[in-house]
Amino acid sequence: ETGVTQTPRHLVMGMTNKKSLKCEQHLGHNAMYWYKQSAKKPLELMFVYSLEERVENNSVPSRFSPECPNSSHLFLHLHTLQPEDSALYLCASSQDAPASYTGELFFGEGSRLTVL
Amino acid sequence: QKEVEQNSGPLSVPEGAIASLNCTYSDRGSQSFFWYRQYSGKSPELIMSIYSNGDKEDGRFTAQLNKDSQYVSLLIRDSQPSDSATYLCAVPTLSGNNRKLIWGLGTSLGVNP
């Protein structure tokens, strides 16, 4: 495996379900990110982890819960989501954090989430 | 609110033509600028970065930066159908005590054979 991999690629869940998105980076990077991409909106940064420590949380609702057990793995736990949470969730990594200093992010292919 | 603005398009050019994509930003303190390409159904990938006023060339791609006018552009020469994608402009800006990557909405480019 190379780069940044995300699973599952597609997820359909009801509003009462609990599910998790998984991200793994094989690049030896020190920072990992969760982004939300919705139609007609710019990419929205949700969470940033640097060396397994959360360094940014952009006022994301508590129904989204991140977990970073080590520098290679990142999870996004989902519970009691709303239909408006349907979107493409992208994981990214960068060599250094915060990536805004370099702007170079490596993205996974994304998890397409549909909330019914 | 710091912003990055792009014309959403769609921009349509014939194969072999020059495609010109523009981006304006509001934070005068920004020092670095990035262009990402996103194919339909895929994730963004970095294709160009520019830090100084002027032009930066990489193959068929040229990034142009004018900090006085606060715009950055991406030119694609000899456009190919494989260049059809959405191009995202991203600019690190100060937000409180942090620097954040602010993204434009992206410009959809279609290259017609």
Q: Explain this structure to me?
A:
The complex is a heterodimer of chains A (116) and B (113). Chain A has 116 residues and is an all-beta fold. Chain A has strands at 4-7, 10-13, 18-25, 31-37, 44-50, 53-57, 64-70, 73-79, 87-94, 106-107, 111-115. Chain A is globular, with a radius of gyration of 13 Å. Chain A starts with a strand and ends with a strand. Chain B has 113 residues and is mainly beta. The A-B interface holds A 40-43, 45, 56, 90, 98-110 and B 4, 32-34, 42-46, 49, 88, 90, 92-93, 98-106.
Brief description of this entry?
By secondary structure, chain A is an all-beta fold. In chain A, 0% of the residues lie in helices and 55% in strands.
Main β sheet profile of chain B: 6 strands, mixed
The structure class of chain A reads mainly beta
Name the largest protein-protein interface in this structure. A-B, 20 and 23 residues
End-to-end CA span of chain B: 40 Å
| Total count of strands of chain A | 11
Which blocks of ≥5 consecutive residues of chain A have pLDDT under 50? none
Please summarize the sheet with the most strands of chain A. Answer: 7 strands, mixed
Report the portion of residues of chain A in β strands.
Answer: over 45%
Q: How much β-strand is present in the residues of chain B?
A: over 45%
The residue fraction in helices of chain B comes out at under 10%
Count of runs of 4 or more consecutive helical residues of chain B: 0
Tell the overall outline of chain A.
globular
What is the molecular shape of chain B? globular
Output the number of helix runs of chain A: 0
Mean pLDDT of chain B: 92
